[in-house]
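Deliverable D2.4 — example input (structure tokens):
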């Protein structure tokens, strides 16, 4: 997974039978980066049957992220200070037959129980900011929104870059939404 490991986490609670896969909306746009490089703006979302509390537990269980996020090798909490968490993540970026290890240290700002903001402290990206928003639904389920601005710190092929990012984010979101619905 190229970029998606920058935040999502393993589940907590009692597993239930997995429902049908939630529909996923995803928009990826290539934009100009800070110094003229390629950057990507991502807007994605889906609806899960899980409650907002269950979805929150999934997103904030940082040490278990690698249990289900594709191509994520490890994730661990380095420090916690109130609603701010420093997390290190190591994953793989894959381009056709090539693979590259990517390490990130991110600052996570939790605004329980609805918003998580993530920003890059250091790592193999030039820029990374994302947010997760959890919106409770009258049905008891949750609308899950993910927004990100990402600028790779390495070469991404121009003609296929947005397509590769779209594929990686689709894999991330599919895994996160499925995990949330396991822990309702």
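Example output (designed residues):
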């Amino acid at each position: 997974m190229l970029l998606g490991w920058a935040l999502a986490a393993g589940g907590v609670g009692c597993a239930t039978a997995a429902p049908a896969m939630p529909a996923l909306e995803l928009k990826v746009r290539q934009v100009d980066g800070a110094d003229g490089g390629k950057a990507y703006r991502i807007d994605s979302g889906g609806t899960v049957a899980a409650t907002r509390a269950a979805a929150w537990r999934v997103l904030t269980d940082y040490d278990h992220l690698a249990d289900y996020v594709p191509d994520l090798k490890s994730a661990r909490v380095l420090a916690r200070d109130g609603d701010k968490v420093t997390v290190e993540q190591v994953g793989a970026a894959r381009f056709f037959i090539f693979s590259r290890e990517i390490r990130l240290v991110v600052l996570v700002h939790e605004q329980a129980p609805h918003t998580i903001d993530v920003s890059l402290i250091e790592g193999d990206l030039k820029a990374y900011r994302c947010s997760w928003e959890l919106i409770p639904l009258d049905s008891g389920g949750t609308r899950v929104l993910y927004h990100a601005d990402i600028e790779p710190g390495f070469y991404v092929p121009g003609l296929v870059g947005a397509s590769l990012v779209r594929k990686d984010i689709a894999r991330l979101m599919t895994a996160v939404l499925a995990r949330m619905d396991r822990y309702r």
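Residues 161-182 form the longest helix (22 residues).
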